[in-house]
Amino acid sequence: MRRFTFNLLAVLIAAFALIQLVPIDPPENPPLETEMPLPAEVRTLFLRSCYDCHSFETEWPWYSKVAPASWLIKREVDEGRAALNFSAWNRFTAQEQQELPDKIWDVVLSGKMPPAYYLLLKRDAKFSGRDMGILRAWYADNDSGRRSVSAP
């Protein structure tokens, strides 16, 4: 049994070392284009809780350079930037720019963002009750009466 455990451990270590050789584009932050216009307090909240996946201001942790975490993190950031990029506001049409506060509020209010697995690694990204109040006020200012603003 000990020999099996040793062999298994050796195989796992060798596999871990080998997957480091799989090429992947290194994590990078392209230059900022046009930022979403946000009040300073809201931007601070989004910086803390959203920008790692939804902007060109991603803070790449050390493990983002180690496979297989690098593969997962890069995929999440690529998908996040494709869905909403606070640093490429100019890429959205005027209609999309008008609708995005609704979408942002909906996913934050539902608890879908930030995702639970992200909160395991970055606990301070969780929106507090005070944070939700700030976001609710921002959303209400951008809502222009389109619909009622509910709160958790």
Q: Tell me the count of domains.
A: 1
- Average pLDDT metric: 86
Name the helicity range.
55-70%
Shape: elongated
Order of helices and strands: HHHHHHH
Description of the molecule:
The structure is a single chain. The chain has helices at residues 2-19, 40-49, 51-54, 69-83, 94-110, 116-121, 129-143. It has one domain (27-143). With 152 residues, the chain is mainly α. The longest helix is centred in the first third of the chain and has 18 residues, at 2-19. The chain is built from seven helices and no strands. α5 (94-110) packs antiparallel against α7 (129-143). Helix content is 56%, strand content 0%.
Summarize the structure.
By secondary structure, the protein is mainly α. Helices cover 56% and strands 0% of the residues. The chain has one domain.
